[in-house]
Amino acid sequence: MSKPATRDGNASTRIADSIRASILAGDYPPDTRIRQEDVAERFGASRLPVREALRVLESDGLVRLVANTGAWVNRLTLAECEEIYQTRERLEPLLLRYAMPHLDDDRLDRLDELARAMEETTEVEEFLRLDREFHLSSYEPGNTHILGDLVHRLWNSTQYYRRAYTMLLDDNRRRIMHDEHHLLTTALREGDADGAERVVESHIRRTRLQLARHPEVFDVPTSREAHSE
User: Are the beta carbons of 196 and 190 closer than 8 angstroms?
Assistant: First the structure.
């Protein structure tokens, strides 16, 4: 029988979930400093669950812990982002192949719904939420030991830059992106693993090449402070 969650364990999970959501939503831009004392005060918690929460966020690829200064939201250089995207180009098609035999009709129907919803929305944050669910949901059934967790970490680390990419899209590139989502759902329904892999690889590469044309995206102000709400 598993042990019941401790009070500190519950608090650290709650804190990690809240800060994770704020980082992914862009509330804490790259290089924002997150002070343990501010977080503890905000959540009415002791330092121990705060430290545990920040370690979880570090393992998620969202923050880096620096001795004597606390946590900082991860910031990427253009070269680091390109490396991550090239890694994703190779890993995500493989993860999708693992997942494909386990994609049932309900999940495929949901992917179709998400593809249509992305096409209809004009809100960047709504699109990002739908896009994240679309891709990660297509990978979720893959029963992997390390690949799924690694892909989630890579997604987390590039979320800020994915937002910037979305805001750079013109009508033509947006149309291509939506077409790729529909092509992917068609390939998944037809059980065409090779075709699905090609679509995902091209989809990720397109983002990488677009970001490379806009190095200014990576020139974010440094040393921000995250304040409690």
Answer: no
Whether the Cβ atoms of residue 162 and residue 128 lie closer than 8 Å to each other:
yes
Q: Is 65 helix (H, G, I), strand (E, B) or coil?
A: strand
The domain of 134 spans 78-216
* Averaged pLDDT score across all residues of the chain: 91
SS3 4: coil
Q: Is 228 inside any structural domain?
A: no
Which of the listed residues 47, 75, 103 is the one where a domain comes to its end?
A: 75
Q: In the predicted model, is pLDDT for residue 4 greater than 50?
A: no
Give the residue from 160, 85, 92 showing the smallest Cα distance to 128: 160
Cβ of 109: how many Cβ atoms within 10 Å? 12
Closest alpha carbon to 32 in 22, 43, 47 = 22
Q: Are residues 89 and 55 in the same domain?
A: no
Nearest to 185 by CA among 87, 120, 124, 117: 117
Contact predicate 71/57, CB 8 Å:
yes
Domain end among 75, 91, 120: 75
pTM, full prediction: 0.86
